[in-house]
Amino acid sequence: MGLGLPTLKSRSQRSVGRTMMPARGPGPQVIRPPAATPSTKRQSAGRVLTDAVLQLQRETIDGVNNLTEEMRQIRNVITEIATILKDTVKK
Q1: What are the extents of the domains in the chain?
Q2: pLDDT tens digits for 7-22?
Q3: Contact present, 36 and 51 (Cβ < 8 Å)
Q4: Computed from CA positions of residues 62, 68, 69, 70, in that sequence, does the dihedral angle turn out positive or negative?
Q5: Under 8 Å CB-to-CB from 26, ≥6 apart: which residues?
Q6: Which of 29, 30, 47, 68 has CA 20 to 30 A from 87's CA?
Q7: How far is CA 26 from the centre of its chain?
Q8: Taking Cα atoms as reference points, which of 25, 24, 29 lies closest to residue 10?
Q9: Mean pLDDT across the chain, nearest whole number?
Q10: Ramachandran sector of residue 20 (left: φ over 0; alpha: ψ -120 to 50; beta: rest)
Q11: Is 28 exposed, middle or buried (0-12, 13-18, 19+ CB in 10 A)?
Q12: Global pTM exceeds 0.85
C-alpha cells in the first residue's frame, strides 16, 4: 500500500545503492533509493545557491532603486520647503 513508508527487506539482504548485499546486523533493513553522485549534488546545490543569490541580488537592487526614488521625492519636498521659507523671510 502507498503509505509513504520505507519498504523493509529481510534480515539476509539490504540495499546499498543499486546492488543487494547481505545484511550485517539483525533485524529488517530499510531500502533506500540510490544516492546522488557527489558531482550531481554539487551541481544542483550550486545551481540552487546561484539562483538564490541572483534572486537576492534582484531584490536588493529593487530595494535600493525604491529607496533612491523615495529620497529624490524627499529632496524635492525639502527644496520646496526651503524655497517657501526663503520667500517668506524676504517679505
Answers
A1: 8-90
A2: 444 444 444 444 444 4
A3: no
A4: positive
A5: 11
A6: 68
A7: 41
A8: 29
A9: 74
A10: beta
A11: middle
A12: no
